[in-house]
UniProtKB/TrEMBL annotation:
Coiled-coil segments on the chain, per record: none
Protein name in UniProt: Slc3a2 protein
Organism annotation: Triplophysa rosa
Signal peptide: none
PANTHER family named in the record: 4F2 CELL-SURFACE ANTIGEN HEAVY CHAIN, SOLUTE CARRIER FAMILY 3 (AMINO ACID TRANSPORTER HEAVY CHAIN), MEMBER 2A-RELATED
Bias (Basic and acidic residues) ranges: 1-19
GO biological process, any: L-alanine import across plasma membrane
Molecular function GO terms recorded: aromatic amino acid transmembrane transporter activity; L-alanine transmembrane transporter activity; L-leucine transmembrane transporter activity
Length: 497
């Protein structure tokens, strides 16, 4: 073999070695990596077994570790005691929340009077049932219905307090209405005023006890059917009868889940007479027809203060409309009805409205106009319809505030200002948001200089009868509050401690 052939054989041997697998074993127990032989140890893992129990106990018992454990234990208990002491200090120094006063269903929102159910809806009691969603949207808590019983004006022999006049519906219709109203969180009160045909009932009670006894039996009958309360007009006459004590006793028996209400109203009485009658009758809710917006607001502020100071606000009902008083918008036609809404929703007590008040219907307007608001208006009625819609939206906004703000539901009433044509007061509750109410019934602008330790420099507008001059959510001066003619505003400001 010549030299050239030997060189080729060497190259071929080297190529063959490179082609051998890297994991191939050799007789010496080594692996080839290319042309390099590497010795791989059989077991390179190092296991840590730690200290035995005896070794740990021996180390833990040394003085150094004993001191460290005692120091850590002392720090733990010192930290725990410190946190406990801090929590106690915070609890002691934190302002205490006032307990929420006892509230009944008639104190939680507005009540709505439907004196003539056929005028409210041409389907009588069934029609009222169909309008429950409409009423529920306005946060109405209870309906005062009727009277719907059978009677002819000035004829006591025709009086049947436990029988529904067929013109309004049947007892089955009333039961259906009760069931649906209760499911929506609304209560039903029946007006059992005996001689509602002409409103004069004094002679009926003076002749004998028969009418009063019928009234007592009717209360028992309807409450047994699930009615949530009874309403009586001209309470001063009924309260003079011998049956009154037994009538009161019926309502002193409270249901386990829901209290039944005895309500009454009077008109044309002074504030002192109203106060005496409220004490004597002890009704759950008393409507007085006060204040009288036709008189000076210096006098009206005094009326409000006297009633608030002498009686729990849970028994005060404020109503400025009805069969005798007329519609809210007709009391003083020159005053926007939204001023009355502002007053009734913010006084300490329960606002009571008559059907149509929520849209500002006047005496000559029919209740049917309420159900036409969603339809397209013609040119002649467009302006009136727009105004009714604006009044309804304002009513709903105030009702929403009344339902959720503690200061408006049961807060303290603080008088700030009164003049011949203007009024201002505060509603305060514990650490909740505060509300300032200001109204000007006059034809001239007024500037109210309001002083109270609780007042800030500015307040936020929550509701206003004139959004152009006092836009909602804007900040206005409280110390010198300016109101234009026929204007009202509801301001709020936070609790400052």
């Amino acid at each position: 073999m010549n030299k050239e052939e030997e060189m080729k054989e060497v190259e071929l041997n080297e190529m063959d070695q490179e082609k051998q697998p890297m994991t191939a074993e050799t007789p010496t127990g080594t692996e080839k990596n290319g042309c390099v032989k590497v010795k791989v140890p059989e077991d390179t893992e190092v296991k840590f077994t730690g200290l035995s129990k005896e070794e740990l106990m021996k180390v833990a018992g040394t003085p150094g570790w004993v001191r460290i454990r005692w120091v850590l234990l002392a720090l733990f208990w010192l930290g725990w005691v410190g946190m406990l002491a801090g929590a106690i200090v915070i609890i002691v120094q934190a302002p205490r929340c006032k307990p929420i006063p006892e509230m009944n269903w008639w104190n939680e929102g507005p009540l709505y009077q439907i004196s003539d159910v056929n005028e409210f809806s041409d389907r009588g009691l069934k029609g009222v049932d169909e309008k429950l969603d409409y009423l529920n949207q306005m946060k109405v808590k209870g309906l005062i219905l009727g009277p719907i019983h059978t009677v002819q004006a000035d004829q006591s022999s025709t009086l049947e307090l436990t029988s529904i006049n067929p013109e309004f519906g049947t007892e089955s219709d009333l039961q259906t209405l009760l069931d649906r109203a209760h499911r929506k969180g609304m209560s039903i009160v029946l007006n059992l005023t005996p001689n509602y045909g002409n409103g004069g009932i004094s002679a009926w009670f003076n002749k004998g006890a028969s009418v009063a006894e019928q009234l007592k039996e009717a209360c028992i009958y309807w409450l047994g059917k699930g009615v949530d309360g009874i309403f009586l007009s001209d309470l001063k006459d009924i309260a003079k009868t011998e049956a009154w004590t037994s009538i009161q006793a019926i309502f002193n028996k409270t249901d386990e889940t829901k209290k039944i209400a005895l309500m009454g109203s009077v008109t044309a009485l002074s504030v002192d007479e109203v106060s005496l009658l409220l004490n004597r009758t002890s009704v759950d809710l008393f409507l007085t027809g006060l204040p009288d917006p036709g008189k000076s607001w210096i006098t009206q502020a005094d009326v409000i203060q006297k009633l608030y100071a002498s009686h729990p606000q849970t028994s005060l009902g404020w109503s400025l409309s009805g069969q005798i008083l007329g519609s809210l918008a007709s009391r003083t036609p020159s005053v926007p009805v939204r001023l009355y809404h502002t007053l009734l929703f913010t006084l300490p007590g329960t606002p009571v409205f008559s059907a149509g008040d929520e849209v500002g219907l006047k005496k000559e307007e029919k209740l049917q106009a309420m159900w036409d608001l969603e339809s397209q208006a013609d040119g002649a009625n467009a302006t009136a319809k727009e105004e009714h819609i604006a009044v309804h939206d304002f009513f709903k906004a105030l009702s929403d505030l009344k339902a959720k703000e503690r200061a408006l539901l049961h807060g303290e009433y603080v008088s700030l200002h009164s003049s011949h044509s203007s009024l201002a007061f505060l509603r305060l509750w514990d650490q909740s948001e505060r509300f300032l109410v200001a109204m000007n019934w006059g034809s001239d602008s007024v500037t109210m200089k309001l002083v109270n330790e609780d007042l800030p420099a500015e307040g936020r507008v929550r509701a206003t009868t004139n959004a152009e001059s006092l836009p909602v959510d804007s900040m206005v001066s409280v110390e010198k509050l300016q109101l234009g003619p026929k204007q009202a505003v509801l301001l709020s400001y936070p609790y400052a401690g």
